[in-house]
Amino acid sequence: QVRFVESGGGLVQAGTSLTLSCAASGRTIENFAVGWFRQAPGKEREIIIAISWAGYNKFHSNAVSGRFTISRDDAKNTVDLQMSSLNPNDTAVYYCAGARIPYSIPLDDPEQYSDWGPGTQVTVSV
Fold it and tell me: Distance (Å, rounded) from C-alpha 12 to C-alpha 125?
């Protein structure tokens, strides 16, 4: 079974950038799609960005399009989330999750993701 762990969260000022990293262990994730989710206080968890295995397909939610990017390094078994132009609305616990998702299945379906990390807190101050 694969295990994911997020890192890189913290307190940052609005307008700055931050990179989160998702490290997998237990097995290679080269054939896994990986998504980043977030849950803000009082809100449901939402998927914000995802990348297919081999990186051919990507998904970006409207909330992060143009500001967040996702990349994977299968040699290191990691998937990074690069965040820029952060604002207080980006404050949330950020989770990464993965699963073997065929190209025929949309990346933005949360039900497809079976293995989850514990999350990392990102707080954006004004």
Answer: 6
Q: Is the dihedral of CA 40, 45, 48, 50 positive or negative?
A: positive
Q: Which two tokens stand for residue 63?
A: 């909330």
User: What residue type is 123 in one-letter code?
Assistant: T
The secondary structure of 9-62 as a DSSP string is -EEEETT--EEEEEEEESS--TT-EEEEEEE-TTS--EEEEEE-GGG--EEE-T
pLDDT in tens, 71-111: 999 999 999 999 999 999 999 999 999 999 988 889 999 99
- 27-63 residue pLDDT tens: 999 999 999 999 999 999 999 999 999 999 999 999 9
β-strand partners of 73: 78
